[in-house]
Design brief:
The protein has helices spanning about 20-35, 55-65, 175-180, 210-215, 245-280, and strands at about 1-10, 10-20, 40-50, 90-100, 100-105, 110, 125-130, 135-145, 155-165, 185-190, 190-195, 225-240. The protein has about 280 residues and is an alpha+beta fold.
Length: about 280
């Protein structure tokens, strides 16, 4: 298996996963969405809430605010030595006290630890009118998206098969496929359709070029053929800024490796037990 990066910055990545299978690609996608831990608000103590929102709705909105996460400095509460009591290693504490009239934003959520602030400071939480007030204390913990969507580190994560476009020699260069392509992947050169350089990966696999060639061309067989390379997948990953997207990819792969090793260990133990039972 090989990963070829075409784009990777703090929050977005686009890469090709080569020599793989659809099963592994989907497992990888699901691991990035639901197996990489992040920080999110889990418990909220509401001391005063005279806003238009019920307490439950206010707590739900707070839980969906993405928080900066340093996994090297934090421990999932299920693995912490405090046994779920909540300590500085596994729990981040926030306070919020605002009185109207004004809009309450995520920047009003004050972290006890400056390393774990809200990712965005302009997320609206609730609008307060005159004499309305919200006073809360919130605790955030590390968990995974499998438990709840608020712990998902990605806002978009998907893949498609690598496109393969073949243009026959009998192409007459009519240009109908060029006009029909929504991504501008095709062009006419020397009286024949060609693939524009560095644009093949943008193909939607919609097949419009092949269809128009069949209906408007000469003969019963199109000159352009759209297919896919099932051993290569084009991935697009966008994070919510709680974690760098590169770390999301790395931790998802490490998680898959650990699960594979655990499965192999379990299978070896079963084989030994069966072998010992036969010997007895």
């Amino acid at each position: 298996m090989e990963i070829v990066m075409s784009k990777c910055n703090e929050n977005n990545a686009r890469f090709i996963l080569k020599s793989t299978t659809t099963a592994f690609a989907n497992a990888f996608r699901r691991a990035m969405i639901s197996e990489v831990p992040t920080l999110a608000i889990e418990d909220v103590k509401i001391y005063d809430n005279t806003s238009v929102l019920f307490d439950e709705m206010l707590a739900h909105r707070l839980g969906l605010i993405p928080l900066r996460t340093d996994l090297n400095a934090c421990t999932p509460i299920t693995e912490c030595l405090c046994n779920g009591e909540g300590c500085s290693r596994c729990t981040a504490t926030y306070t919020l006290s605002v009185e109207g009239p004004r809009m309450v934003y995520s920047r009003d959520l004050i972290p006890q630890n400056s390393a774990s602030p809200p990712v965005y400071d302009n997320i609206p939480i609730v609008k307060l009118n005159e004499n309305q007030k919200v006073v809360i204390e919130a605790k955030a913990v590390i968990n995974i998206g499998k438990e709840h969507a608020k712990w998902q580190p990605t806002v978009a994560c998907g893949y498609k098969s690598y496109p393969v476009i073949t243009i026959d020699e009998h192409c007459d260069g009519c240009g109908m496929c060029v006009e029909e392509c929504p991504r501008g992947i095709l062009a006419i050169d020397n009286g024949k359709a060609i693939i524009v350089e560095n644009k093949l990966e943008n193909c939607l696999l919609c097949g419009l070029c092949q269809r128009v060639c069949l209906t408007g061309g000469i003969g019963s067989v199109p000159s352009i053929h759209i297919d896919t390379d099932e051993t290569s997948k084009i991935f697009v990953v966008e994070g919510d800024h709680s974690l760098p997207v590169r770390e999301i990819i790395e931790r998802a792969l490490l998680g898959l490796k650990k699960k594979s090793e655990d499965l192999l260990t379990a299978l070896n133990e079963i084989s030994e037990e069966v072998s010992n039972a036969k010997n007895d």
